[in-house]
Request: fold
Amino acid sequence: MARAKKSESKELANWDEDLAKYAQEAADKESSSGGGNYMSTKNGNFTYKGDDIPSPFPTIVLDAVFDNAYYPDAYDDDNPASPICFAIGDDEKTLQPHPDCSDPQSDFCEGCWANKYKSGDNGKGKACKNQRRLALVAADVLDDIDENAEVAMLKVSPTSLKFWGGYVKKITQVLKRPPFAVIANVSLEPEKSYHVLQFEIGGKVPNNMLGTMRQLSESCQEDLHAGYPAFEETEEATTSKRRPASKKKAVTKKKAAPKKKAVVKKKRKF
Reply:
């Protein structure tokens, strides 16, 4: 019996060391500032695959990546389009346009005209949207989560980045755990004329579930890093506002190959 307890303590100590490392990696992503099925936050409500999701809802954030996207025109619900330039990655300082971009605005995001403050409409904000992509798994019934659990994607808009960054910092400092080892209660809260995402600690993921969470985190990377779907650019779009003419450079456009749809056995959804 004593030997079993000693072995268990050693195993927990190993997990604590690994979790602290993953927590710091997650925090480092936030310190400087598709693929899959996406959860919608339109009109201040969560919906997923046509179903309403209560706010707040318990979830586990498996991982997050940077997602910069530049649209030359205002978003139109009736005519949705992909950004003409976008970058997706784990390191904000090395982000560069994705190979599938129809019109890259620069070689790297750092130093790009669209990624500078006052480049947005009316000289405010940035022309490029600095966002995060989160991979989530429902946490209302932890015993139902396994390697086949359905993973949903959620975008954190520029107005909600401070709340996501604050959450990661808090769980790193207080719990010394990365997002995939913590249950988060995610909600949409009204602020001015829009809604923002809020993240609150809901508890720790049980140690016996950590291996599954790490496995899910690793298996969702392809969707997390997937490019935006291609769209046919209209003549109006090609003449719309983009980078200043003096900075424009010739770019060979590449037609994005259709994304292969992975067949994955899904067990449950949000």
